[in-house]
Design goal:
21% strand; alpha+beta; two-stranded antiparallel sheet; three-stranded antiparallel sheet; single chain; Arc Repressor Mutant, subunit A
Length: 118
């Protein structure tokens, strides 16, 4: 243990520093670029446009932000974040659902709920 001195209220105090049990921050074995590289490799061949890829990445992030398996995809949020219209959003969701990347839960007039499958 290392010994240091600090000054408190004008007095010099001897302080022992304990070794931390917290390990060093581990680096991920796989590469990460906003999503796992493996996930991107699976999605990339299944989208046709850059907008569809942007929606897929946005969904990946949205799931992490919502911290829930099921999450909604508000048109306004996607428009504000990426400038993507609802038409493009629905096309991308349909494409990703057909590819088996997501499941879309429809509950009548309520907002669509999305579940990432990969």
């Amino acid at each position: 243990m290392a010994v240091e001195h600090v000054i408190r209220d004008g007095r010099r105090i001897e302080v022992e520093t304990l070794e931390s049990r917290v390990g060093r921050k581990r680096r991920h074995a796989d590469q990460h670029i906003g999503c796992r590289l493996e996930w991107l490799k699976r999605v990339l061949p299944r989208v046709r446009t850059k907008e569809q890829l942007a929606v897929a990445l946005w969904l990946h992030r949205r799931r992490a932000v919502c911290r829930n398996e099921l999450f909604t995809v508000p048109n306004k949020a996607l428009q504000q974040d990426l400038g993507i219209s609802r038409r493009v959003k629905y096309g991308a969701l349909q494409r990703l659902e057909e590819a088996g990347a997501i499941a879309i839960i429809r509950e009548g007039k309520h907002a669509l709920k999305i579940r990432l499958l990969w």
